[in-house]
Amino acid sequence: MKIAVLGTGSVGQTLAGRLAGLSHEVVMGTRNVAESLSRTTPDAWGNPAIGTWATQNPHIKLVNYSEAAAFSDGIIVHAMNGFAAIESLKQAGEANLSGKILLDITNPLDFSKGFPPSLFVSNTDSLGEQIQAAFPTLKVVKTLNTVTNPIMVNPSIIPGDHTIFVSGNDADAKAQVVEVLKSFGWAAHNILDLGDITTARGTEQILPIWVRLYGVLQTPMFNFHLKVAH
Ligand SMILES: NC(=O)c1ccc[n+]([C@@H]2O[C@H](COP(=O)([O-])OP(=O)(O)OC[C@H]3O[C@@H](n4cnc5c(N)ncnc54)[C@H](OP(=O)(O)O)[C@@H]3O)[C@@H](O)[C@H]2O)c1
Questions:
Q1: Are strands 164-168 and 139-143 parallel, antiparallel or unpaired?
Q2: What is the mean pLDDT, run by run of 10 residues, along the chain of 230 residues?
Q3: Which of 152, 147, 44, 133 is nearest to 89 (CA)?
Q4: Atom of ligand 1 minimally distant from the CA of 150
Q5: What's the predicted TM-score (pTM) here?
Q6: Which residue among 30, 81, 88 is best mutated to probe the pocket of ligand 1, counting the most ligand atoms within 8 A of its Cβ?
């Protein structure tokens, strides 16, 4: 497949690298290609700057949002800062998005008052729903937003069963995203379809407990395992 990854942070890098490793053709979307390529200072967690990463991954081209979305033949991975989520898609352009699947990983995190962050959308709405409402022809599927990026593409980092959630209005789009998740190593019985895009309220609201667990455990390498009594 020809897949666009919108976002150059650690999530965008991890997803783009893994998808290319699975033999997909991948491009990555950024605001300003030249400025992004000039970045070489790692982030606070030691993740490479996008300029360094792009040099190490020359097969993945950095382009603007509209070129990236136009390149995709069906799936666009959305790994944007939450505040920039809708603006990036406006810049991608309605015509380049129409009918395509948005594998949306974004969380509505607000770090403006420090750690822990709050959610800038919650309770009766979600970022996933806001994106779907703003772009009705896009098939938004929210997933992977409840785990740290290495686990997204390599769930076996955590031994045994653990759960990943999927939310979206379009059954076929969810089925295609589930195939992508399986290609990353997620077992079918650990992929839980929660229902329509309003269920993204639940998975985005996992983040307040997720950041508290991160603080207590001092590692992001954990996940939830849903167990049901029969
Ligand atoms: N980090 C994780 O493991 C993890 C796990 C689950 C979910 N998520 C979610 O995934 C998304 C991506 O996370 P991330 O850690 O990879 O990166 P991030 O720092 O949250 O976002 C970086 C991306 O946002 C873009 N962006 C566009 N406009 C922006 C603006 N005004 N301010 C800041 N950034 C802007 C940047 O564009 P440029 O390319 O132009 O710089 C860059 O591509 C977030 O919504 C996050 O909550 C992250």
A1: antiparallel
A2: 98 98 98 98 94 98 98 98 98 98 98 96 98 98 99 98 98 98 98 98 98 97 96
A3: 133
A4: 3
A5: 0.98
A6: 81
- Reported as half-sphere exposure (CB side, CA atoms, 13 A), residue 94 has a value of 6
Residue 144 main-chain phi, psi, to 5 deg: 65, -5
CA–CA dist 53, 44 (Å, integer)? 16
- Look at residue 45 in the predicted model and tell me its pLDDT: 87
Angle between the 85-92 and 127-134 helix axes, to the nearest 10 degrees?
20
Does residue 149 line the site of ligand 1, with CB under 6 A?
Answer: yes
Put residue 6 in one of left, alpha, beta given phi > 0 → left and psi -120 to 50 → alpha. Answer: beta
Q: Give the H/E segment covering residue 36.
A: helix 33-37
Residue by residue, DSSP assigns 140-160 as: EEEESTTS-HHHHH-GGGS-S
Nearest protein Cα to ligand 1, atom 4: 148
The CATH number of 2-217 is: 3.40.50.720
Domain positions in the chain are 2-217
